[in-house]
């Protein structure tokens, strides 16, 4: 497992930013429009986070193992959370995100998928951010 380089992080950020923008265009077609707006904002904001991490990473002293864990945790976590929000908007799930999902419900299987895609990526984002903080120390 190798780390994303600066250009790959910037590409990943730009792609997620674009996916967030396209999610915004799709909001009227989504079952839960409020969750769709959340998915749109998550995509755009997480794309910017990946840009910033890519730019910061170029200033760090290389540490291949830590860089690999940090970049993969952040990329998978940030994309995963966007996907969770998008699926919640499409399927109308509400258990994992009750405020944005209020008034909606979906099958147990769909609720479980979204729940796993919310909590797993959240843990990855926390881990990746902690590693970034340690690398900046």
Describe the protein.
The protein is an all-alpha fold and 137 residues long. Helices cover 78% and strands 0% of the residues. The chain has five helices and no strands.
* Overall body shape: elongated
Q: What is the residue-mean pLDDT, rounded to a whole number?
A: 93
Q: Which class do the helix and strand fractions yield?
A: mainly alpha
| Helix content bin | over 70%
Provide a quick synopsis of the model.
It is built from five helices and no strands. The chain is mostly helical.
Topology:
Blueprint: H1 6-26, H2 33-57, H3 64-91, H4 98-101, H5 108-136
Keywords:
single chain, 78% helix, mainly alpha, 137 residues
């Amino acid at each position: 497992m190798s780390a994303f380089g600066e250009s790959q992080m910037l590409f990943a950020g730009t792609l997620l930013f674009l996916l967030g923008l396209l999610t915004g265009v799709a909001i009227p077609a989504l079952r839960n429009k409020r969750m769709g707006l959340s998915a749109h904002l998550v995509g755009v904001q997480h794309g910017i986070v990946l840009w910033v991490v890519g730019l910061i990473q170029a200033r760090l002293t290389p540490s291949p193992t830590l860089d690999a864990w940090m970049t993969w945790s952040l990329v998978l976590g940030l994309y995963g959370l966007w996907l969770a929000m998008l699926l919640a908007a499409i399927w109308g799930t509400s258990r994992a995100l009750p405020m944005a999902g209020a008034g909606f419900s979906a099958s147990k299987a769909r609720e479980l998928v979204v729940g796993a895609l919310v909590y797993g990526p959240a843990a990855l984002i926390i881990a990746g951010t902690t590693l970034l903080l340690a690398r900046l120390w």
